[in-house]
Amino acid sequence: MNFPENLRYTNEHEWIRVEGNEAYVGITDYAQSELGEIVFVDVDTIGEEIAQGEVFGSIEAVKTVSDLNMPVTGEVLEFNEALNDAPEAVNNDPYGEGWIIKISVKDAAELDNLLDAAAYQAIL
After folding, report:
1. How many domains does the structure of the chain reveal?
2. Does a structural domain hold residue 3?
3. What is the distance between the alpha carbons of residues 102 and 24, in angstroms, rounded to a whole number?
4. pLDDT band at 66; cut points 50, 70, 90
5. pLDDT tens-digit map of 18-34
């Protein structure tokens, strides 16, 4: 399992990488391994402001569908369109090519509510 130190994590197994006022969001290596083969990622919240903890989309694996929860409040700016043709990128590279959405962060203070890599590993 891979837990990059530069990310913050949720109890629901999402990660966030902040770059200025924007951030990338995806699911963790642990989450993708538990879900199994990812076959579809659905995000229909582009342009919407989603509150911390609220659902911004779903991810479908061969055996299950799981909600995707927003790590911090923000506007969904972009969906990783590459996942339409290659959803398996979430399995193969969850912290890189498998990112799911790009957001504008509304309140950076909410990042303090998230887990660092060591705390995330401790809950697994």
Report:
1. 1
2. no
3. 4
4. very high
5. 999 999 999 999 999 99
Q: Which residue has the tokens 């891979």?
A: 2
User: Residue 43's domain is classified under what CATH number?
Assistant: 2.40.50.100
Within a domain: 116: yes
Residue 50: its pLDDT value, please? 98
Any domain includes 2: no
Q: Which amino acid is at 103?
A: I
- For 21-37, the three-class secondary structure string (H helix, E strand, C coil) is CEEEEEECHHHHHHHCC
**Which residue stretches of 21-116 are H helix?**
29-35, 82-85, 89-92
Confidence of residue 84 (pLDDT cuts 50, 70, 90): very high
- Residue closest to 60 by CA, chosen among 82, 32, 79: 32
Per the structure, the complete domain to which residue 101 belongs is given by 8-123
